[in-house]
Amino acid sequence: MTWMAWTLPTALFFALIALLLAGMTVYELRRPTRLQRGFLPIATTRGDRVFISLLSAAFIHLVWLAVVGSLLPVASVMSAAWTFTLMRWG
Question: What pTM does this model have?
């Protein structure tokens, strides 16, 4: 495991992703999802929207780093707002 710099932010990131996946699994078992049409051009399930939001967050952070280069918490807030919007109305 020496190939990766396991800093506290890195560990928290992976722990939160693991908790998200575990929570989504429990939620799916308790309330099975169905296809939903929102503002996205395709019908999606809850899991699809989580996957799209994770990819979107990565791209938001990459574009933010390319354009601004600092203040990543702002990009994180933007990603969280996009995730909320996508999960609610996507």
Answer: 0.80
CA 22, 90, 41, 55 torsion-angle sign? negative
Structure tokens at 78: 């933007």
Average pLDDT per 10 consecutive residues for the chain, totaling 90 residues:
75 90 93 90 91 94 92 91 92
Residues 6+ apart with CB under 8 A from 10: 4
Please give the full DSSP string across 23-56, using - where no structure is assigned.
Answer: HHHHHHHHS----B-SSSSS-B-HHHHHHHHHHH
Report which DSSP code applies to 68.
T
Q: Give residue limits of the domains in the chain.
A: 1-32, 36-90
Q: Is 88 helix (H, G, I), strand (E, B) or coil?
A: helix
Rounded CA gap, 9 and 26, in Å?
A: 26
Residue 27's Cα: distance from chain center in Å? 16
